[in-house]
Amino acid sequence: MENTTKNNILDAALVMFAERGYKGTNLRDLAAALNLSKSALYKHYDSKEDIWNALLDKMEAYYAQRFGSMDNLPKPPDSWEEFVQTVMGMIRFTVYDPQIILTRKLLLTEQFHDERVRKLATKHFLEGTANIYGKVFESMMEKGLMKKGDPAMLAFSFTAPISALVHLCDREPDRQEEAMEKISQFVKCFIATHAEKQA
Amino acid sequence: MENTTKNNILDAALVMFAERGYKGTNLRDLAAALNLSKSALYKHYDSKEDIWNALLDKMEAYYAQRFGSMDNLPKPPDSWEEFVQTVMGMIRFTVYDPQIILTRKLLLTEQFHDERVRKLATKHFLEGTANIYGKVFESMMEKGLMKKGDPAMLAFSFTAPISALVHLCDREPDRQEEAMEKISQFVKCFIATHAEKQA
DNA sequence: CAGTATAGTGACCGTTTGGTCACCTGTCAA
DNA sequence: TTGACAGGTGACCAAACGGTCACTATACTG
Description:
The structure is a homodimer.
Chain A: H1 5-20, H2 27-33, H3 38-44, H4 48-68, H5 80-96, H6 98-110, H7 115-142, H8 151-171, H9 176-194
Helix pairs in contact in A: 1-4, 1-6, 2-3, 4-7, 5-9, 6-7, 7-8, 8-9
Chain A binds a DNA duplex through α3.
């Protein structure tokens, strides 16, 4: 993304909105964080709400690109070792990337105050990742790696517990290691119960 | 609970804090919702923060009573039919009870802005229910109803997906039926994979 | 009956907030 | 050279906010 002031404002806005909430964010502090005067913000956006909407536009575009097209699916793994590595890698990225952490916080804390956030939250927390793993499991069943069953339901029972532990990481960063360890255990446990036993 | 003004204030505060957030709640509207003048609030609480803290005291007391003692465990079921009935009953209660809905909303939206909420959120969303089902599964394993395994991990993989769907109900009340149906399916699916096969 | 605590009111105060305005400065095209 | 324009500043405004205060009415108590 370009390093224009307009974009810098959105970056700083994401931080403040995520940590203090929409109502808790005031334009003076936001401007100060950018080494700008408050009135400078109004050269780029018409109002506080306008900044908020621009930020949501950006987030919607991001999710449309990430979850919308089926092109960027992770390639279906050929073994469970490969599966574990891919999955744990994606989770680690998701847990540690500062921007994604802030996005999750914003979606959680503002989901009941804004209609667009509400929809994005469902997409992010429920449907997005579950759909992806649905496709992955489907092809793993065809390959005979995984016991036959409803791929969507299995994907959901795989995704939801991981998501719960990711939320724990956001909420209590002190317990990140513990949570990551539990995620790893859960993944093993999930594999143990759903892998097709073969020679 | 007694019908004193002091309690009525807390009830109305729960509604407003849950729906508008702490920052988004102002004392004029809160007083108006109670048919009181704003200054009357100060006869019962010293400040906005004081109301907030009193509400959290009440919530902490509730959770200590609900999750703290092991006395009020649901009695371990003797069959899977009984299990399904108990579980679905508890879930239905949790999904439809207005006060509990508001509590969940408050915990979600304020978890990053208040230390006490942070801890309550982990207790409520992660440890509380999982611990309960851990005990239940343990005794179901002993009874030979359930395949042997780590009861804690199984309880977690049972609880987390249900919790995710309960959150969906809060976020999009229009999809309550759909979510309840999916919960029911998930429970069946969970039983199918973890029940000990017997004559 | 007098005195005192309780619960409630409306006017008021200082601060914070989103937003506006006149003004300044450098860049770049006519 | 000049004039338009994008980007930035500080002073200012009205509204909203949390909180205070003097005052009133009711009820309980010595």
